């Protein structure tokens, strides 16, 4: 019970529930995109990174090839490498623990951890959010996949519209300020211009190249775009969980 | 079978990115440029996926009920709705517009 008094554990649990729940939308959209139940579960169990999972099924749904889907998912997963570096610097996991920590290194577990100042709280936040989201995300993916499979014509239910909304919802928290908005607009334009000329799925990779070039050649915040899909510390009286020191 | 193969490769590569952060010396990845590219690419890819799912239909562009989904999702986000509500708003708008006979 003492663990529940840890601010990082509480934040970790609430972000686990919020993030886990939207696994329902992933599961439902995945099976209506043409993946089967076990392919959907493999993405949630093994790939385990919401944005990349949505990217994979988004490319497949649009008629793109498997290799284009892999390209989009993989490029979108690059930020997890940066998160891994941040978490490694904070938690210094040793031995086999590192391999487990790597698997649950995603937007939300990293944000829960880095939002704390006390080393013990950082550790608790990372593992609570990482493991909590892993369990609930997979559970709700299965629920969504089973529900989605029984829906019939996905268009009648507006599930293609749900995919549009999901991607905008993932993009939204990253549009803080003019620069990210400009990057988003330029990449959206590049995508639309490329659609008629290259096979389905490839326009997304064109946009990735444009975005990478902008990041490489321009100067700006080095953490641009690295906001989590769900901010564990949003709408809390003490942003960044600062008052954690005395509770450990 | 081929989709399974690309899917499992994607899982492997996703894990490779994550593990890289733990195994590579911090100095290698400390270059702020790598972090910036990772971030701008995240924005660019999500913007691209949003628009592709809105207007692309194979290799052609189509304006249909999905535009309504985009508008509904944007409105929900402006009203600070939680993620699931945003997704439901998108689905509801697309389904509703189709019921009305558009797209």
Notable characteristics:
heterodimer; A: 248 residues; mainly alpha; 12 helices; globular; disordered C terminus; B: 103 residues; two-stranded antiparallel ribbon; 5 helices; 79% helix
| Class from helix and strand fractions of chain A | mainly alpha
Mean pLDDT figure of chain B: 91
Summarize the helix and strand pattern of chain B as letters: HHHEEHH
Q: Can you write the helix and strand succession of chain A as a string? A: HHHHHHHHHHHH
Biggest interface, and residues per chain? A-B, 110 and 78 residues
Number of strands of chain B: 2
**Which range does the strand content of chain A fall in?**
under 5%
Q: What is the general shape of chain B?
A: elongated
Q: Whole-number average pLDDT of chain A?
A: 89
Main-sheet strand order of chain B equals 1-2
Number of helices of chain B: 5
Question: Could you tell me the strand content of chain B as a percent range?
Answer: under 5%
Largest sheet of chain B: 2 strands, antiparallel
Please characterize this protein's 3D structure.
The complex is a heterodimer of chains A (248) and B (103). Chain A is mainly α. Chain A has one domain. Chain A is 67% helix and 0% strand. Chain A has twelve helices and no strands. The longest helix of chain A is centred in the middle third of the chain and has 31 residues. Chain A is globular, with a radius of gyration of 19 Å. The C terminus of chain A is likely disordered. With 103 residues, chain B is mostly helical. The longest helix of chain B has 24 residues. A two-stranded antiparallel ribbon of chain B has the order 1-2. Chain B has five helices and two strands. Chain B has a domain of 41 residues.
């Amino acid at each position: 019970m003492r663990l529940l008094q840890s601010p990082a554990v509480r934040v970790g649990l609430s972000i686990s529930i919020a993030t886990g729940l939207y696994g329902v939308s992933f599961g439902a959209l995945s099976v209506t995109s043409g993946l089967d139940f076990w392919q959907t579960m493999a993405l949630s169990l093994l790939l385990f990174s919401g944005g990349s999972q949505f990217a994979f099924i988004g490319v497949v749904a649009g008629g793109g090839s498997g290799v284009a889907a892999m390209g989009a998912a993989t490029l979108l997963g690059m930020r997890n490498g940066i998160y891994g570096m941040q978490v490694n610097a904070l938690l210094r996991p040793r031995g086999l623990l590192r391999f487990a920590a790597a698997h649950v290194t995603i937007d939300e577990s990293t944000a829960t951890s880095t939002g704390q100042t006390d080393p013990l709280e950082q550790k608790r936040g990372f593992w609570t959010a990482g493991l909590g989201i892993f369990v609930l995300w997979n559970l709700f993916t299965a629920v969504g996949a089973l529900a989605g499979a029984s829906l019939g014509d996905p268009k009648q239910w507006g599930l293609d519209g749900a995919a549009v909304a999901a991607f905008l919802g993932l993009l939204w928290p990253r549009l803080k300020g003019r620069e990210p908005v400009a990057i988003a607009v330029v990449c959206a334009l590049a995508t639309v211009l490329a659609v008629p000329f290259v096979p389905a799925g490839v326009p997304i990779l064109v946009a990735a190249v444009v975005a990478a070039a902008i990041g490489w050649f321009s100067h700006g915040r080095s953490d641009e775009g690295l906001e989590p899909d769900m901010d564990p510390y949003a709408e809390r009286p003490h942003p960044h969980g600062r008052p954690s020191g005395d509770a450990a | 079978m081929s989709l399974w193969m690309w899917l499992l490769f994607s899982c492997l590569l996703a894990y490779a990115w994550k593990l890289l952060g733990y195994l590579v010396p911090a100095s290698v990845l400390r270059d702020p440029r790598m972090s910036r590219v990772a971030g701008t690419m995240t924005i660019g890819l999500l913007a691209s996926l949003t628009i592709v799912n809105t207007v692309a239909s194979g290799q052609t562009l189509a304006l249909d009920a999905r535009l309504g989904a985009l508008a509904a999702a944007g409105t929900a986000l402006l009203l600070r709705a939680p993620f699931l509500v945003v997704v439901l708003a998108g689905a509801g708008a697309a389904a509703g517009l189709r019921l009305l006979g558009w797209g």
